[in-house]
Description:
Elements: H1 7-15, H2 19-41, H3 44-63, H4 73-94, H5 106-110, H6 117-133, H7 139-150, H8 155-162, H9 166-186
Helix pairs in contact: 1-2, 2-3, 2-4, 3-4, 7-9, 8-9
Amino acid sequence: MELLIDDSVLVKKYMQGDESSLEILINRHNKRLSSFIYSKVQDREITEDIFQDTFIKVIKTLKRGKYNEEGKFLPWVMRISHNLIIDYYRKSQRMPKFETNNDYNLFSVIRDEGLNVERQWIKDQIDAELKVIIKELPVEQLEVLEMRIFKDMSFKEISENTGVSINTALGRMRYALINLRKLIDKYNIVLTN
């Protein structure tokens, strides 16, 4: 009978101190969330770690009373896990990977053949200027742009997370790019180095 209780009711009950409500939510969404995480990382242990970290964040957010009921519970939890997956990949790629053999060459690890110091500085400047001007976009466009570009989310995921149709998400992205071009012209930003 308890499985018929709506997620939002269970969230409220948990926030009021009913610990068993969270257990029901975890059990209800365990398989779908685990499958989603595993599809991205392809490793059982990492999947379990990210799953646990996801619910640690869920618990902390709920305990602080910061949960926003506008979104549905599952898409919110999926977004948290998606962000943790991105964090996992960022951390794992931060450290250079190299094979341990006798031909090891330190310079092959630290050398960046694509950018010299001057080019890197110019690229960093362009990135910094773009981060400032995108803040001028309307909120809906900025949200879609950040999800698509910085979080690498599909338009289907963006649609689910924002509660709008895929066509609306695509439209917002299109207008974000149009407005971004206007802002680049307005501030006379040169995008080539």
